[in-house]
Amino acid sequence: MPSLHRFLLGCLTLAAFAIPGHATAQASDAATTARNTPMPTSSATPSRYGLIGTMRTKPGQRDAVVRLLLRDVDDLKAVGCHLYVVGLDHEDPDLIRVTEVWDSKDAHRASLQLPDVRATIAEAMPLLTGEFTQTEFPVAGGLGLTE
């Protein structure tokens, strides 16, 4: 499953902050607050965990990182991922946008603790600048998402 772990690299917007002593662990107060703020839930509608993030690559490294993010995406279904979309930016050739939907925040967090995922993150970090953003949200539904 090394490919799955490379694919989960897209979760760097969270995982990079979880690596003790790594430069990206110095997240902004706003990102830290957003990451630690409980998501609202409704007792009437079960909610999945959504995450939209960006990561900036070093010049010329975007395609290499995108290749890592897109390997064996189907394997993510087994660990609770329902949607994983990697997007590019028309105006910024070094910016990658990632949109994810998971069973829960805990499923996402647990996937980031797998040893191979952490090893892949360490492999990819040299290709990144350390600039990440993230927005978490409860998922109400959408095209392609089953109940």
UniProtKB/TrEMBL annotation:
- Feature: compositional bias, Polar residues: 35-46
Cite the residue spans of the region called Disordered. 29-49
Q: Name one Pfam family in it.
A: ABM
Q: Does the keyword Transferase apply?
A: no
Which keywords does the record carry?
A: Monooxygenase, Oxidoreductase, Signal
Signal peptide stretch:
1-27
SUPFAM superfamilies to which the protein is assigned, alphabetical: Dimeric alpha+beta barrel
* Top-level division of the source organism's lineage: Bacteria
Q: Which GO terms describe its molecular function?
A: monooxygenase activity
Segments forming domain ABM: 49-137
Q: What is the top EC class of this enzyme, as a single word? A: oxidoreductase
Question: Know the name of this protein?
Answer: Quinol monooxygenase
Q: Where does this protein come from, organism-wise?
A: Luteimonas salinilitoris
Biological classification of the source:
Bacteria, Pseudomonadati, Pseudomonadota, Gammaproteobacteria, Lysobacterales
